[in-house]
Amino acid sequence: MDKVVVVAEQRERQLMEVSLELLQKATNLAIILNGTVSAILIGNQCRDLANELIAYGASKVFWVDHPHLELYQSEVYAKITAGILAEMSPEIVLIGGTSIGIDLASRVAAKLKTGLTAHCIDLYIEKIDGKEQLIHIVPGWGGKIMVKIICPNHRPQMATIRPGMMEKAKPDPSRIGNIISIHPDITENDFRAKTLEMVKERREERPLEDAEIIVAGGFGLYIAGGFGLIEQLAKAFHGEVAGTRPAYDQGWIPENRTIGQSGKTVRPKLFVSIGASGAVHYTTGFLKSRVIVGIDKNPSSPIFHVADFGIVEDLKKIIPCLIEELEQ
Amino acid sequence: MPLNIIVCIKQVPDPEHLYQITIDPRTGFIHRAGIPSITNPLDRHAMEEALRTKEAFGGIVTVFTMGPSQAKKSIEEALAMGADRGVILCDPVFAGADTLLTAYVLSKGIRAIGNFDLILCGSETTDGGTRQVPPQLAEFLDIPHVTYARKIDFIDAKRVIVERTIENGYLKIELKLPALIAVLKSINQYRRPTVMGIMEATRKEIIEFGSSICNPSGIEKEYIGYIGSPTKVIEVFEPLQRQNVEMIGGIPEEAARKLIKRLRELEAL
């Protein structure tokens, strides 16, 4: 029984990490529902990726391959995805909360007239009034509160999950699964919005989501003499630079380096927060990091409620000491 | 080629004041008393893009919102910026709508007004932040959409090229009108209402629609508000916080040494 479906995303014939992360979550949910995990894959000449999805937990892959589907095409991707889902009628559909995944999920949910929740940080199944329901945990009001949402009477129950929120499993290349090739019925009218090309920018920067170490700065650096200190420190840590929303507002970091509710969610091995008091809409963006270090000059900053290690110190004094220590 | 442009906006709690929100531990209700409302910041960029398009090609700009009667303030602000008329979709039964039902009601209101060439909105609001309403609205209206737009160029009266931001760059998309475009902050710098604009706004029309636009034959009641929404909030709670922070003291040199030592022990470096 296809109880749980992951809508996979590929760019340039590579699966997005989040699709693999979701397969692990989907596998856990499917066990409870006594069913299996399927995946939907749309692209051009991407059969290898279907095998990869099976290695990561899919029992069945609906593989849609067409030269016109290499790039994300909002209308036709939604039409194909909704068509497959309508036929399968799964209980749960998970989609990676990338800029493209959210766009696709929204239109698909509207086609299926069902509920969709955004950037869930946790998902589990609970019996409510005798019926198994997916509980979606979603940060609300800038992350100040958490909201528990269900979709009691409509199916499928759909959710998007940000990259980095779930952990992917180890692939098992010996896993067996079915690849079902689907020949899409595409017409000119499906391309009223037509993606012509994908242009890459800032090649030299690694995506923040992939970073193992992130050093993030907040407004406290304004008094300490600017953001340059963070860049030096990040270099000493061999990490990536990020920042809070106020750091973005100051023009110190680009939007794609902003951490939190209105930016990126990351879970690096080490997250170092410097000169940020630790407002909840910022901290939700890195709570799942393995080790969190908070450094601020104000001992009552809420950052010390979420950090594993804390230092209360003048930033101008502590940062050079850290750099020196790291470079030894 | 005058264009009929619609801008969808939303009144939201001022994000600067969100820290004032508390949960009553006994009832589980959210207290938001004293938090001022503003127009969702990205929606102002959508308004600006509409005005610039009208200035280039002529036409009419109609601004839409769904919300309680005080949301009229956001409509008035848009009229003062330069919109020609406003529509407020306001009915107690609309309350508690999720994104699907919000998009549905907006689509009904837009249909009731007549033809349009372009719908503009912000890609995201500062309250829910789901980014779901723009594509869902486009689906209900059966028009193509682009979200995350940072640049819009007209080829001719029927076609535009949009730059649509993605994680490591952008997609270049050709879009046939009528269409919906949801914009990002980087698309423009929006104007502030002038005194003249504010005075003129008082003479502009604001149309009010209730649930009757959704319910002409009485059969669509199940499709509005909280009752009709597929998703339901069943509980709110405060996020768990990590406990037991290990504070590292001493002079800066000493603290730095201790911290780096601990991180190496944990293989976090």
What does this protein look like?
The complex is a heterodimer of chains A (328) and B (269). With 328 residues, chain A is of the alpha/beta class. Chain A has two domains: 2-190, 3-Layer(aba) Sandwich (Rossmann fold); 208-327, TPP-binding domain (Rossmann fold, 3-Layer(aba) Sandwich), CATH 3.40.50.1220. Chain A has helices at 17-33, 47-55, 74-88, 99-112, 221-224, 228-236, 245-249, 280-283, 303-306, 315-327, and strands spanning 2-7, 10-11, 14-15, 36-43, 60-65, 92-96, 116-117, 122-128, 131-140, 145-150, 157-161, 178-182, 193-200, 213-217, 240-243, 270-274, 291-296, 309-312. In chain A, the strands form four sheets. A seven-stranded parallel beta sheet of chain A has the order 7-11-6-1-4-5-12, sandwiched between helices. A five-stranded parallel beta sheet of chain A has the order 15-14-16-17-18. Chain A starts with a strand and ends with a helix. By secondary structure, chain B is an alpha/beta fold. Chain B contains seven helices and 15 strands. A nine-stranded mixed beta sheet of chain B has the order 11-10-9-12-8-1-6-7-13. In chain B, a hairpin with a 2-residue loop joins β10 (159-166) and β11 (169-176). The chains are: A alpha/beta (328), B alpha/beta (269). Chains A and B meet through α3, α4, β7, β9 and β10 of A and α3, α4, β9, β10 and β11 of B. β13 of chain A pairs antiparallel with β11 of chain B.
